[in-house]
Amino acid sequence: MPDRLSALDASFLYLEDSATPMHVGGVAVFERPRDGFAYEQLLCLISQRLGYLPRYRQRVLPVPGHLARPVWVDDPDFDLNYHVRRAALPSPGSDEQLFDLVAQLMARPMDHERPLWEAYFVEALAGNRVALITKTHQAVVDGIGTVELGQLILDTTPRPCEPYEDTWVPRRLPSTPRLVLDAVSETVRRPGELVENIRVLAGDAAATADKLADAVGGVASALRTLIRPAPAGPLNRHVSGGRVFAVVRTRLDDFRKIRAEFGGTVNDLVLTVLTGALREWLLSRGESLDAGSTLRALVPMAVLEPDAVEFSTAGLVNNRVEAHLVDLPVGEPNAVLRLRHVSHAMRVYTDSSRSVAARAMLRVGGFAPATMHSLAARAAGSFSGRIFNLVITNSPGPQQPLFAGMARLTEMYPVIPLARNQALAIGVTSYHGNVYFGLNGDRKAVSDVGNLAAMVEDALDELKGTHW
């Protein structure tokens, strides 16, 4: 029997529209080595390792009459050159031009008749650099059978790509009678599945929220205990088809120094810095704030299963991501008090024995932050947009250099998708002594996302103070 999409995976396809494509992205910037790093070398590297990701050569095949959820099938017309494309920036090849390109690419939905991922090799970036922009649909990366492409193409040491003969042969597509027969058989065994599929197909997200949330883990309980709507504000707007993307580069040592002085975790400090930036951004837009004003962030976090003994690479993909709702105190004018509020709100989750500490995740050498961000986006996608204002994901990354082939990775930024009526999503990743913020916004509702990015730096400086 073909591999059928889960209810959660199917929901990401059914509820997607042209304004809210449900793919997670990433931007990786590389220093070009002396002997170069060309498109052909990237193709070689990806083709070498694509066998570890069977889902990346499969497409979604609908069942006639929508009698059951679609199935994953091998794409008989799979073309690696279609999925890995070349792009070049016009002179002068600035970072601003790169991130404008990111915004344009992320706004485009993917072709559902092909495997649901794309990669763009961007050349002519100033400073003898190249970039890799990736897009992967949320239905693909489940953290169990499939991880994000970036997890496999990055190594801890430079390695030239050796010649590789691809022996992959696609399996035959199932016939229409076979698809119908399998669907009918499944409906007989589990009649509720047909009703559930019709509801999700019709866009009745509310009717299936609890079931989809259970697939992510832990979200349904949060929905039942916290039903009040999110505070009103400029972030909950109808999302257009356009995007804007901005980044912030900071030093991990700055966060560690603040932690040593004021306490809290690095994650608390990241949320506090973003709270300060969002406060200034709201004020710059003429929003009225009082001491009790808040914005509610949906903050996905990795957790261990109750019976897990330790956090390991093998256990990672079987672990879950739970999305927590955190009220950010944007009305508090004092930066240190904002940190106290955030730390108190997060302590409920971080004190749990099931929470995965950042230091534990950093010990897992093969784990790519991109996979964590993909799982976080899946968790966020199962929430009702009425109960939060924005999504913030934070995944610690490796603190040693990484390489794609012979090219050294210098920067990495996550691009978190926007949900309906959610105009801003922020992804944060630490890597090799730096902390990188990727701010993905709606072009109409948050056109000034560049101002918000600058305010992130100001908020960090505010916490640092002038005595360092």
Automatic annotation (TrEMBL):
InterPro entries: Acyl_transf_WS/DGAT, O-acyltransferase_WSD1-like, O-acyltransferase_WSD1_C, O-acyltransferase_WSD1_N. The keyword Transit peptide does not apply. One of its GO terms (biological process) is triglyceride biosynthetic process. GO terms for cellular component: plasma membrane. This is Diacylglycerol O-acyltransferase. Residues 5-270 form the O-acyltransferase WSD1-like N-terminal domain. Its EC number is 2.3.1.20. Residues 319-464 form the O-acyltransferase WSD1 C-terminal domain. Belongs to the long-chain O-acyltransferase family. Keywords: Acyltransferase, Glycerol metabolism, Lipid biosynthesis, Lipid metabolism, Transferase. Pathway: Glycerolipid metabolism; triacylglycerol biosynthesis; Lipid metabolism. It catalyses: an acyl-CoA + a 1,2-diacyl-sn-glycerol = a triacyl-sn-glycerol + CoA. One of its GO terms (molecular function) is diacylglycerol O-acyltransferase activity. It comes from Amycolatopsis pithecellobii. The keyword Lipid biosynthesis applies.
